[in-house]
Give the backbone structure.
Amino acid sequence: MSKLDLSEPTRFQKRRNRLMYMALMSRMNKFPDDKYRFVTLTGVGVNCKFSPLSEKHAYDKKFFQSFVKHFRRLGLIEEYFAVKTDEGLGVIHLVYTGKSIRYHDLRAVWLSLSGSWNVSIRLVKDKPAIMRELVYQRYQYRYWFSRGWKC
């Protein structure tokens, strides 16, 4: 009986990577002058009442949707592309267009929603590096994008 080699992506993972790359690049190529920002949000924290592993992924999505809705109402996020990966306890990487969000506001909102405090935000200067970081993760659970992202 042979062991499954996790270092090589499966056919399904290769196809998903290709689709994710095309979805991510569709906007970045059409609007190269837009300022893109890269946000990393850690998974559900230990202080959260919804932390059982069986429910964790569903609540990460719920928290993420509330997070995006909050900043879209403030007019800070216009369009976004997000990837949920298996790093650590589960991380959501978000690329968005719009105005800059202050780190303290970002951290406070994510902490109040998920109980997790570790976030980061930076301006995208090297688009190929960001794409490699998003698309070639060891495993992505899911990816989401706003309606206006794909053109």
Notes: Strands lie at 36-42, 77-85, 91-98, 119-123, 140-145.
